[in-house]
Amino acid sequence: MSRRLFLLLFAFLGLIPLHVPAADLPHAAPVPGGVARIDLGPAEGPPPAAWYGERRVWVRQHGGRWEAVVGIGLNVQPGTQRIRVQRGEGEERIAFEVHPKEYATQHLTIKNKKMVNPDPEALKRIRAESKRIRAAFRHWSEGPVDAAFTPPVDGPRSSSFGLRRFFNGQPRRPHSGMDIAAPEGTAVYAPAPGTVIETGNFYFNGNTVFIDHGQGLITMYCHLSRIEVSPGQRVQRGDLIGRVGSTGRVTGPHLHWTVSLNDRRVDPALFLTVEELASR
To answer: Can you tell me the distance from the alpha carbon of 192 to that of 151, in angstroms, rounded to the nearest whole number?
Structure first.
């Protein structure tokens, strides 16, 4: 059965909604690498503030109630997790359950051996770049969030989020984004409004753009052949931000798209409608 038919069948059975209003995205999926949506009570007075671990959490008004939208890291073990919620002078902890999920395994062959086992000079560069990448993912800005994303590039999904990856037989971190196959030079667009907070050429990621969408929701676009935006630039949905390439650690031209929420990498598919997922 094709992925499209599979998704439409599940929608027909009521297991996933086929038509999801923009305000209902992202999809709730309280699993490692997923998103938990936690009810915080009636939307009365100013919004509460919430934290998951050390990171501030996105709180929004949804259906007349406050809701915390929490990114769950891929390394989180199934079981009970808690967020800290502050309302005025009062503080409470609210529990939520993380359910298990198994991700598939992927083996890739990288011709450039330095992209698998970097030399000392490359490691020095990687450490310096890691600080910039961490700062981008930990960036926080206030304001409303539009989480109804459109795919940033037209093409089939070539590698899904969460895959347990082996490069030249050596285990590496799970895949923290969605890969979309497209020819070199294909336009890459902003999936939602935001502000460019970082760009550059990175050892593993190649030419890269980071966009801040507000409330700890950050997206990253890697392996670009060209970067078409600059830090500080405001972008709207559908604005050109770059072009597909094969820079950094790749096996061919494609876009690697990462979505980060409260500094936790989560599945970009949760921010797309079922119709868009069926076309990937």
So the answer is: 9
pTM: 0.86
Q: Determine if residue 80 is left, alpha or beta; phi over 0 gives left, psi from -120 to 50 gives alpha, anything else beta.
A: beta
Architecture of domain 3-98: Sandwich (2.60)
Name every residue whose Cβ is closer than 8 Å to that of residue 82 and which is 6 or more positions away in sequence. 93, 94, 95, 96
pLDDT tens track for 96-153: 999 998 886 655 555 555 555 677 888 899 999 999 999 999 999 998 999 999 999 9
Residue 108 Cα to chain centre, angstroms: 22
Which CATH code of 2.70.70.10, 3.30.470.20, 3.40.50.2000, 1.10.10.10 fits the domain covering 105-278?
Answer: 2.70.70.10
In the block, which residue shows the tokens 């030079």?
185
Q: Is beta strand 49-52 parallel, antiparallel or unpaired with respect to 55-62?
A: antiparallel
> Which one, of 140, 133, 126, 120, lies nearest residue 57 by Cα?
140
Per DSSP, 172 falls in state -
Q: Is residue 256 exposed (0-12), middle (13-18) or buried (19+ Cβ within 10 Å)?
A: buried
* H helix count then E strand count, the chain: 3, 19
Run of H or E residues at 49: strand 49-52
**Contact between residue 40 and residue 67 where contact means Cβ atoms under 8 Å apart:** yes
DSSP helix/strand/coil, 58: strand
